[in-house]
Amino acid sequence: MAHKNEFVNYLLDLLEPFGFITAKSMFGGYGIYRDELMFGLVADDTLYLKVDKSSVPEFKEAESEPFTYVKNGKPMKMSYWTAPPETLENQDSMLEWAEKAWAAALRAKRK
Q: Lesser CB count within 10 Å: N end or C end of the chain?
């Protein structure tokens, strides 16, 4: 499904081998879903991937940053971190990191 946002369309193409991937508009950005479970977030043409306690160290090592927004004047961090830059240039890398995000989303769903 094509979107008005070229970056989102590019991501959907990159993620095509990963399964049934969709993007849904939300809060001025997009949620990236596989089989109706959100594992990615696009804000300001930046891809953020779902993390949890077990995957945060890998994202830190890749020098990723958490998605942060301001609520009542306070910065709030979400469990989504920037995708490492190489994921946007290399489909194999994208699929590897998407798998980590998908696994974190599945673990969060089970809780």
A: C
